[in-house]
Amino acid sequence: MKDIYIEKEREISVIADVDVLVCGGGPAGVGAAIRAARLGVSVMVVEMLDCLGGMATSGMMSHYTGDSSSSVMREIFIRTREKCDVLGYDDGNMHGDLAAIHHEAQKIALDELTDESGVKKLYYTKVCDVIRDGNKVAGVIVENKSGRGLIKAKTVIDSTGDGDVAFLAGVPYCKGRESDGKMQPATLMFKVGGVDYSRAVFPPTFETEVPTEKGELQALGKSILPFPAGHVLLYRQPTPGTVCCNMTNALDVDATDAFSVSKATEQCRAQIPYIIDFLHKYAPGYENCWLMSAGSLIGIRETRHFEGEARLEKEDILSARYYEDWVVRKAYFNLDVHNMTGNGLDVTGVQHKFTQQKPYTIPYGCLIPKNVDNLFLSGRNISGSHIAHSSFRAMPICMAVGEAAGVAAALFVKNDLSSSKVVNVKDIQKIVGDD
After folding, report:
1. What count of other Cβ atoms lies within 10 Å of the Cβ of residue 40?
2. CA 160, 165, 168, 174 torsion: positive or negative?
3. At 90, is the pLDDT very low, low, confident or very high (cuts 50, 70, 90)?
4. What one-character DSSP code corresponds to residue 55?
5. 196, 63 Cβ separation under 8 angstroms
6. pLDDT tens for residues 230-253?
């Protein structure tokens, strides 16, 4: 028999009452919150960490990879560049690449942009439960250092990545790959300093071969680094001599299981000394590199896929499908499926050899979960297949999805609608399509 404890009932305070509650402050949540607030509704973001940005900041992702129609993303690029100027950072080595992320500058930029838009923020706060009223979410129970509290909202946007709100609200879902439930591996990003840029190599994909005096670098990584690490992905950064490393690897991780994600984080962290030793010995320009910092958020690529009113498929991406009821345009990224049994690229994944060069659209129905009338999906948790998800999980696309969700949520509130299904898609397109 399972060992359980019955928690006593208790009263909790209503700590906020807003029009739109955005749960999760990653790229999708940022896009949603800014867009909704600029349309004149009250917006609050709850975030479990100490800043906005998710993988772009706390996760120390090297750059925004892929593309979309997101105008908020481009505002963030410009504001981050401005903050770099003020903070004394020199990005001359980036050759004008605004997609590369200076993490500390971007944290400040995101605070400023959300403040200017009128977004209220509650950091160090985790979603615990939802209160349902029929087919609607009446509020979300959160917990932080102040205790447990209820945030009432007319509508909720789930930008938690794993879809915690949708899960608690009872939206049907599956995890990972349809055939067996396996999910993409996890990575803890880290940054090194002391790199000689005049000689350094920067392999951007698993398929990039780098000849060196000691052998091909990817092959050396696979033979020397401790399994399941083994691939070599190195990215320029705005600060001189610094490089972001996407090289740790943890398999069979379920980020909806606290024990599993804790083990994965420790496993990835333990790989870092071996990786740096490898870079010292085998990567040109990295002979004197040193560990600067590692992410405070492990990179989780895949967990729950929720059932929506529409579903994005692999074929939609490969055919660059145009949906008449689009809410995201110009979405572009390859099929970035990491190996679920080892390191490198999965047999189903395609990176720099991806031949489809046209962008695709995402229809409104992918953001509308089944069984809940006032909840919007936003980010990598939208309705789509395992393979399609490997493309739309890219941060620029997640941010554009968030913008669409934010606009839809604001229209839902302002027009006092009964269901997210009846939001006029043409009205969403008029707003996000002006960019």
Report:
1. 12
2. negative
3. low
4. G
5. no
6. 999 999 998 889 999 999 999 999
CB atoms under 10 Å from CB of 186, counted, come to: 25
CA distance 37 to 174: 32
Q: Which two tokens stand for residue 12?
A: 């909790």
DSSP assignment string, 358-385? S-EEEEGGGGSBTT-SSEEE-STTSSB-
Query: 82 φ, ψ to 5°?
Result: -65, -40
> Rounded to 5 degrees, what are φ and ψ at 374?
-130, 30
Supply the DSSP symbol for 67. B
Token pair listed for 221: 């990584």
pLDDT at 96: 62
pLDDT score recorded for residue 2: 77
Residues with Cβ within 8 Å of residue 156, at least 6 apart in sequence: 20, 21, 22, 23, 130, 137, 140, 165, 374, 375, 376
> What is the amino acid identity at position 381?
N
Distance (Å, whole) CA 330 – CA 359:
5
* Alpha carbon distance 303, 189 (integer Å): 19
Distance in angstroms (rounded) separating the CA atoms of residues 382 and 161: 9
Confidence of residue 87 (pLDDT cuts 50, 70, 90): confident
Task: Check: CB of residue 385 under 8 Å from CB of residue 175.
Answer: no
Cα dihedral 184, 190, 192, 197 in deg (nearest 10): 40
Q: What is d(CA 369, CA 171) in angstroms, rounded to the nearest whole number?
A: 7
Q: How far is CA 109 from CA 62, 86, 188, 210, 389, in A?
A: 17, 11, 23, 36, 28
* pLDDT tens-digit series, residues 108-166: 999 999 999 999 999 999 999 999 999 999 999 999 999 999 999 999 999 999 999 99
Residue 359 phi/psi, 5-degree rounding, is -75, 160
The secondary structure of 283-350, three-state, reads: CCCCCCCEEEEECCCCECCCCEEECECCCECHHHHHCCCCCCCEEEEEEECCECCECCCCCCECCCCE
pLDDT tens column, 284-320: 999 999 999 999 999 999 999 999 999 999 999 999 9
Residue 137 vs residues 21, 41, 254, 423: alpha-carbon distances, Å: 11, 18, 26, 17
Structure tokens at 241: 């001599």
The Cβ of residue 181 has, within 10 Å, a number of other Cβ atoms equal to 11
- Taking all residues of the chain, what is their mean pLDDT, rounded to a whole number? 96
